Amino acid sequence: MAITASSILSSATLEEFRQEYNKLVSDVSTIEDKNAFSTQISFEGATADAYETILTVDDPTADRTITLPDETGTVLTSASTISATNITISANNSADETVYPIFVDGATGSQGLESDTGLTYNPSSGLLTATIFSGYLKQADDTYSLYGSDSDIKVGYDETTNDAFVIGANVEGAALKLHLYADQADDNADEWLWQIADGGDITWQSKTGGSFATKLTLTADGNMTVAGNLTVSGTTTTVNSTVTTIVDPIVVLQAASGGGALGSDTNKDVGLAMQWYSGSAKTAFLGFDDSVGALTFIKDATISSEVVSGTAGEMIVGDISANNGIVADTFGTIILSGTNAASANAGSDLVLDSSAASTDVGERLVFESGTISLHADPGHESGTFVISDKVKLNGGAGISGDDTLQVEDGEGGILFEDATNDVLIFDDLYTIKKAGKETIWVPASAMYPTTTSGCADLTQVEGTAGRPELKCLDFDPSSDENAQFSVAFPKSWNESTITFKAFFTVSGTNTGTVAWVLSGVAFADNDAIDTAFGTAVSAPPKAHSGTSGDLDVTAESSAVTISGSPSTNEQVYFNVLRDVSEDDQTGDARLLGIQLFFTTNAANDI
Description:
Blueprint: H1 14-27, E1 40-43, E2 53-56, E3 103-104, E4 113-114, E5 120-122, E6 127-129, E7 144-147, E8 153-158, E9 164-169, E10 176-181, E11 191-196, E12 202-208, E13 211-218, E14 224-226, E15 270-277, E16 281-289, E17 294-298, E18 302-304, E19 307-309, E20 350-352, E21 360-361, E22 364-367, E23 372-374, E24 384-387, E25 390-393, E26 403-407, E27 414-418, E28 437-443, E29 448-449, E30 459-461, E31 470-475, E32 481-487, E33 499-506, E34 513-514, E35 516-523, E36 537-538, E37 542-543, E38 552-553, E39 571-578, E40 589-599
Parallel strand pairs: 20-23, 21-24, 22-25
Antiparallel strand pairs: 1-2, 3-4, 5-6, 7-8, 8-9, 10-11, 11-12, 12-13, 13-14, 15-16, 16-17, 18-19, 24-27, 26-27, 28-40, 29-32, 30-31, 31-40, 32-39, 33-38, 33-40, 34-37, 35-36, 35-39
């Protein structure tokens, strides 16, 4: 309904006021005395039409007052599209209650307000609780987050002093602990505890049997203790300390990878390399020489690929006690000096009493002056020497008149005695054969290709006329090929393992390696020859020089066990194989021969 009443001025007459008031009363329904409205007020607006704005109230249950402020502005409703410029909020810093922060639906424009039960705040404790955070949480330099109700842990970025991320115990005298675990800590082994104590000592602890046990300790002074095994990989481990103390009674060198015994010959020397200086930097070596199988000292050594070479050096020691004799190398000399009865200075008597009446000399025993007095040892003839190589008697060595050297049957010794019958007189330097390592050469001409997977037939290859020609067996690079030969070892063979070297050449210029493998089986009288060979053993693969026709010789193989329980008077068959899966030579390998190494335990075959 349109409003027909008009506004009046203060100068209007009473009649004019009455007329306009009556219009207003008829225009606005439900107006009563004292401007009281029953339920609503209806506003037509500037246009008289079917649309009005109605202001309604709910039925009050008590007196209610709505105050419009003394200011110019627009009233907001729940459907308003206008924005509020300012909202007055009162502080609540102490109430022990859970409140919910308010959010809007969007960043700009008309938005609705809402909260989330997953994000709460307690004004009393200052505790903000959320179920999850996403994205970066940025914190300013030199500021920290505190954890724990007592602010026990301090975390932040120290930009000014140390330029470092900080995790620290925020309680005086307290240790810092970090608990790390995997797999929800389902098992004891999943958990570790890292701790830095007041004072700086660091420990790593793992959970064993339900409780943590220390596995590694690093003190503030730099001392480290490891409770378990320590494995160091790499090329060089450097220990730079004044004294290295090892409590273990045994130090193992050259164990297999991961520990334990070796499975094959590494062809490397094992021991200690000691640096020293005399005019230039030098290296002394004391250790086991793999090539000779003996403890060796080299004063000025050369070490290449963990193989030591050089001349054996002098060692100064006290008494030497040898259960199996004292051995000197080729042309070496045993010099006995001192004042005891069992030793001698140059020019004095050399006296071997009953405890040394049998003297084992490895190479040569040289008597340059003085006399030799030999005393009987129980079970021996007077003055028995057990020798393994040579005895040299110079002038004045105590041999005169009818004195002779006698080799007596069953004794194996050389006896000094006055005898006229059945004697050997040594007028010069003689050699007596000794048991030990020996070789047999088997040329390719003594071999034959196998019927199945055999190499090429024996061929003769001429180089330059008038020069050595080759008798060789050609082995193809594309597949494993075989040849065989047989040997009857001497009776003096110890019937144990043997080793070998392969001699070969290559017709091309490829520098690839060739791998030769040998296996053997022994047959006694009436044995069935149709029997499998023993385990095949390879010599270290040998690279060709790259020049056609150059001689190639492999290093000595590891031990080859001959099957068939070898004994004396037996024939041993060997199978030699080129193992192309273990070499990369693209040309034919021409086998020239095999050098067998075996050990004797007797001086002859009698």
